[in-house]
Amino acid sequence: MKRELILALFVGLAGAGASYAQQVVEESTVERILSTAFPKASADWLSRLKGDETMQACSNRRDAPTAELARAIKVRERATLQYPVDGKLIGDWKRGEQLAQSGYGLRFTDYPVTQENGGNCYACHQLTKQEVS
Amino acid sequence: MNGIRRNVCAILLVASAAHGQQSTDAIERKLETYRSMMKADPWSNPGMLDVERGEALWKTRGGPMNVSLEGCDLGLGPREVDGAFALLPRYFADADRVLDVEARILWCMEKLQGFERAKLLTRPHPGSGMPVKDFGAIATYVAYRSNGQSFATAFSHPKEKEALALGEALFFRRSGPMDFACSTCHADTGKRIRLQLLPFFSKAAEAQRIVGEWPAYRVSTAHVMTMQHRIYDCLWQMRLPEVELGSDLSVALISYLVKQAEGGQINVPGLKR
Question: In chain A, N or C: fewer CB atoms in 10 Å?
Answer without folding.
Answer: N
